[in-house]
Amino acid sequence: MRKRRRQKEQHENTERWMVSYADFVTLLFAFFVVMYSMSSVNEGKYRVLSDTLVEAFKTPPKSLDPIQIGEEQKTIKPIEDEHKDINVVKLKPKNNQHIRQMENIANDLNESLKPLVDNKLIKITRDKLWVKIEMSNRILFTSGAAKLYDKAYPILEELSEVLRNLPNHIDVEGHTDNLPIRTTVYPSNWELSAARAASVVHLFSKNGVDPKRLSAIGFGEFRPMADNATAVGRRSNRRVAVVILAHKNARRMLEIEQ
Predict the structure, then answer these.
(1) Could you count the other beta carbons within 10 Å of the beta carbon of residue 107?
(2) CA neighbor of 125 nearest in space, from 139, 138, 115, 135
(3) How many other C-beta atoms lie within 10 A of the C-beta of residue 126?
(4) Cβ neighbours around 154 below 10 Å, total
(5) Which segments of the chain does DSSP mark as H helices, in order?
(6) Is the pLDDT higher at 138 or at 217?
(7) How many CB atoms neighbour CB 119 within 10 A?
(8) What is the mean predicted confidence (pLDDT) over 216-223?
(9) Nearest of 142, 205, 200, 208 to residue 174 by alpha carbon
(10) Beta strand segments in the chain, E
């Protein structure tokens, strides 16, 4: 009996303390990792937080005076009064300089392009701040395309001779009817009208008109001059307009003044 008891005591595990020690070391390691992670600051996030707090405290109060209940409130100043002090550029020219200039340009164009005007191939109209030359697409382009007719070149070249001697800015506008177009080249009338205006601008530039004074604008079907419900109206709406401006921003400035 004594021999058996001695053998059991010899096989008893005396290294159990190492398990507890290993657990302690692991916990201690995890503790230091957590402490290190808490001690390292993300500078980017800290800066964003700092800037946000500064801006929040710098924001002025939305109301300087609290609303007094039972007292007469101050009358709110109308919005239009706030703009009385803004100096809007007036377009009323001294001694009607712009008006006379546009009148002279219109007279020169009517005289130079009289055969085209008489044959109703082009139409010339005048405003106090611009002169507009409207040309039907039937003398300029094939249907659904922006390539100029051969017969359109002499007309536009003759017009270029007049325009290249002018110092004015020139807008070339493309217009279409409201019939939809959807091709790989022109997904809509926007692209078609802009391409036609660009074709005229390129020709003017090649014929000596300063390209810095030229702009190509596509209006699509959204500025009709006739009713699109009829074939005659749609034919009138398919056009290119050459607008000679007294000032580069004449139209916008006139709208502001009005």
Answers:
(1) 13
(2) 135
(3) 17
(4) 10
(5) 2-10, 17-39, 43-58, 97-112, 114-118, 152-163, 189-206, 231-237, 250-257
(6) 217
(7) 9
(8) 96
(9) 200
(10) 122-126, 130-136, 169-175, 214-220, 239-245
Q: Are 140 and 152 in contact (CB under 8 A)?
A: yes
Residue 207 pLDDT exceeds 70: yes
3-state DSSP assignment of residue 185: coil
Cβ-Cβ contacts under 8 Å for 146 (sequence gap 6 or more): 186, 192, 195, 196, 198, 199
Q: Which fold has domain 94-257?
A: 60s Ribosomal Protein L30; Chain: A; (3.30.1330)
Report the side by side order of strands in the sheet with 214-220.
122-126, 130-136, 239-245, 169-175, 214-220
Provide DSSP, 30-44. Answer: HHHHHHHHHHS--HH
Q: Given a cut of 60, is residue 10 above it in pLDDT?
A: no
Scan for tokens 């085209």, then name that residue. Answer: 116
Prediction pTM value: 0.63
Nearest alpha carbon to residue 196 among 153, 140, 146: 146
**In which residue are the tokens 């800066």 written?**
47
| Residue keyed to tokens 């601008």 | 201
Whats the size of the chain, residue-wise?
258
Dihedral of CA 208/211/214/219: which sign?
positive
What is the token pair recorded at 65?
Answer: 């005076």
Q: Which two tokens stand for residue 169?
A: 């800015």
Query: How many whole angstroms separate alpha carbon 186 and alpha carbon 179?
Result: 13
Domain range summary for the chain, segments of one domain joined by +: 1-59, 94-257
User: Which amino acid is present at 225?
Assistant: M
The whole-angstrom separation of Cα 153 and Cα 76 is 61
CA 198 – CA 202 distance, rounded (Å)? 6
Per-chain mean pLDDT for the chain? 79
- The more confident residue out of 80 and 41 is 41
| Residue where the block lists tokens 């701040």 | 129
